[in-house]
Specification:
about 725 residues, alpha+beta, Multidrug efflux transporter AcrB transmembrane fold, Alpha-Beta Plaits, Gyrase A, domain 2, four-stranded antiparallel β-sheet, protein transport
Length: about 725
């Protein structure tokens, strides 16, 4: 279909249909945004305490950590990415918190726990019932479709660890022609016949009736990779930590931010701005459907991923609009300017989205929980941005200019001549500014110290019986003033007794003395005469984000930086790719350090929001830097003998409008959310949006003032060395 009225109508009809599906869903399998699965902080959820069964001793720390990892993996596979899984080493039990399903109406925690599946121990046994291999020695099980001589069959592929490989080889050697039975506790789930001795730690279970049969068996085996059976000894509901109206407030703030962005685009870029508004609606709808249909839990880092992708979608439209303005300035036709604008903008858009997608893929491969949520929303956003932000918007704009009234340069912004700004000559000023900011942050670390949230440190949990008058917001503020420790406060309701309890978690592994506990109790009771808080239980929990998850998060960030360097090195080889990649990474490290100092100076505890903000700013900043590098590459092709300092000055000046406009639109979005969080006192959104706002500023600054000038300094140094 060629661009024109028919294509324009078709695009608008598709957008309207998708908006309808997003709002109301389509049957039971496609759920709309109103049926999303929201995180614990937004909608509340379930707390369950699991204790080992059949042990005559307290489980070891390693066994508890293994069980915890199995539960987390299981929840990842079910898209429950907002959860808290921690252990009490002294008590020997595991505490799991997770949000309600989207369609939950009964709010019965006992029924909700069934979603996690069986907590039984997996064993492989011989015909006499002797245990040969335990579930903890199984690394993974996956369903497969095989094709033997044209006959389709279904099987389950097993992978064992080193100890499991040894035991499995011994067992299969002894049981050739006999059955090896697989049990979940005392329930038989499969009994395949051993065909041959199997070594190498890889095996398959054949004879499945269909793929679903193989999938169910694989899920049971994965679920049973526990070092012992677990039984739920206590379960209760937990209240949302953000308050019941927090979601509505953030939705209205998001709508307001979206309208302001659209107004900016319309006023500044005219017809391309109007097209940008339409495509932004489509991209946002597709992004939300990508979360609601598979029922990914919408978490704070997930929201960060959506904000970043919307910001990059705006950026894509701004890059294209600026390129069209460049072409119109040359005096060519409107249609020619549109075609050339999209063509010239594509390399910047592609490189920016690919580098950000690299971050997303690494996160999904290594991440878990909220990091998996962030990576998923980010990757979907990049794919949608390339498909919609470039292709759909191009055909939409071409269809509009087929009509005579719109085929006029007055509906477009024509770039004016700009005075070249000597960015390279001001490099020492930029160095002083960055030095002062970093030095101030270092001093702030010594003055205020670095606060870590419960997610990283673990903490002491105090449980109180309270009246219905308890205000969690006031109680949290009172305890933080008294203890100077990060605090999380939630209301829990016991499903058996119906009694409400106040759960107070104080970050830090130092525990709580009786005197400290009394101070906390007094602080709670000081919020209202009717609270009447009485301490009923106290215990110490490990960090919600385990050592493995922390290690993976750090590895993911480092790998992201490394892959960005390599990608930029390859893609920008015409302007000395390695220096471009290294200086881009230095600019990113600069931004990460500034964001860290914002957390320190505003005394915000480091938690998963910190990781989310850092990753968001990495994606945002590298996209900004790549646009400048892309223009440097283009200008060097035009004049290969141009001095590098002049090259950087011209290229940065040419892209300055795009950098500032993108930062303004994204900054406005975050600023509105920040203002709403301050006015309505939504702490966790404030702790996310405030560093994000500063991150956007430093991301823009480092791209314009740091990356390009450092690259030029490197190139000039190379010339001096050669001479």
């Amino acid at each position: 279909m060629k661009p024109g009225k028919k294509m324009l109508a078709a695009i608008l009809i598709v957008i309207a249909a998708l908006i309808y599906v997003a709002a109301f869903g389509a049957g039971s399998s496609i759920k709309g945004v109103r049926e999303m699965r929201y995180g614990i902080d937004i909608r509340g959820g379930v707390e369950a305490v699991f204790e080992p069964q059949g042990l005559d001793r307290t489980p070891s720390e390693k066994e508890l950590d293994t069980a915890r990892q199995v539960i987390e993996t299981r929840m990842d596979n079910q898209n429950i990415v907002d959860r808290e899984v921690t252990v009490d080493k002294n008590g020997g039990y595991i505490i799991v918190r997770f949000p309600w399903k989207s369609g939950e109406t009964n709010f019965n925690p006992e029924e909700a726990i069934a979603e996690l599946g069986e907590m039984a121990e997996l064993t492989f046994r011989d015909p006499d019932g002797n245990v040969l291999i335990q579930g903890k020695d199984v690394q993974s099980a996956a369903p497969e479709t095989a094709n033997n001589n044209g006959i389709k069959s279904y099987q389950v592929a097993l992978s064992f660890n080193a100890e499991g490989s040894r035991l499995f080889e011994e067992a299969t050697g002894k049981l050739i022609g006999k059955r090896m039975s697989i049990y979940m506790d005392q329930d038989l789930i499969s009994s395949p016949t051993v065909q041959t001795k199997i070594s190498g730690g890889q095996a398959v279970i054949t004879g499945m009736q269909d793929y679903d049969d193989a999938k169910n068996l694989a899920e049971k085996i994965n679920a049973g990779s526990l070092p012992f059976s677990l039984k739920t000894t206590n379960f209760s509901t937990i209240s949302p930590s953000l308050g019941n109206n927090a979601l509505s407030i953030m939705v209205y703030a998001g709508i307001a931010a979206f309208l302001v962005i659209c107004l900016f685009m319309l006023v500044f870029y005219k017809l391309p701005g109007a097209v940008a508004c339409v495509t932004l609606v489509l991209q946002t709808v597709l992004q939300m459907l990508a979360v609601s249909i598979p029922q990914y839990t919408l978490t704070l880092p997930g929201i960060a991923g959506i904000i970043l992708t919307i910001g990059m979608a705006v950026d894509t439209n701004i890059i294209i609009s600026e390129r069209i303005s460049d072409e119109l300035k040359k005096g060519i036709s409107v249609k020619g300017a549109v075609l050339a604008g999209y063509k010239n903008a594509f390399s910047s858009v592609l490189d920016g989205n690919v580098t950000t997608a690299i971050v997303a893929i690494i996160l999904m491969f290594l991440g878990s929980g909220t990091m998996l949520s962030f990576g998923y929303t980010l990757l979907i956003g990049m794919i949608v941005n390339l498909l919609v932000g470039v292709s759909v918007s191009k055909h939409l704009l071409l269809s509009m200019i087929q009509n005579a009234p719109w085929n006029d340069a007055k509906w477009f912004r024509i770039r004016k001549d700009k005075k070249i700004i000597p960015f390279y000559q001001k490099k020492y000023i930029f160095g002083i500014i960055s030095g002062v900011v970093i030095l101030s942050g270092i001093v702030g670390c010594f003055i205020f110290g670095v606060k870590l949230d419960t997610q990283f440190t673990g903490g002491a949990v105090l449980s109180y019986s309270v009246s219905d008058e308890a205000d969690t917001g006031k109680i949290q503020a009172a305890i933080e003033r008294e203890t100077n420790r990060p605090v999380t406060v939630q209301i829990k309701e016991d499903n058996m007794t119906g009694l409400k309890r106040l759960s107070v978690t104080l970050a830090g592994n130092s525990g709580m003395s009786p005197e400290d506990q009394k101070k906390v109790t007094d602080a709670i009771n000081s919020t209202s005469e009717k609270v009447d808080a009485k301490l009923s239980e106290t215990y110490v929990v490990e960090p919600y984000i385990g050592a493995k998850a922390m290690k993976n998060a750090v590895v993911a960030i480092l790998l992201s930086l490394l892959f960005i360097v390599v990608y930029v090195w390859i893609r920008f080889s015409s302007i000395s790719g390695l220096p471009a990649g290294v200086t881009a990474m230095i600019a990113l490290v600069h931004d990460v350090v500034v964001v860290f100092f914002v957390f320190v100076l505003f005394q915000i505890p480091l938690n998963d929001a910190f990781v989310a903000v850092v990753l968001t700013i990495i994606g945002y900043s590298i996209n900004d830097t790549i646009v400048i590098y892309d223009r440097i590459r283009e200008n060097r092709k035009k004049d290969s003998k141009m001095p590098v300092d002049e090259l950087v000055n011209i290229s940065t000046t040419q892209t300055l409008g795009r950098s500032i406009n993108t930062s303004c639109t994204t900054g406005i979005c975050v600023l509105i959310i920040l203002a709403a969080s301050v006015y309505f006192q939504i702490g966790s959104i404030l702790e996310f949006s405030l560093p994000m706002f500063f991150g956007i500023i430093t991301g823009c600054y480092s791209s314009i003032c740091v990356a390009g000038t450092l690259w030029a300094m490197w190139e000039k140094k190379k010339v001096i060395v050669k001479k």
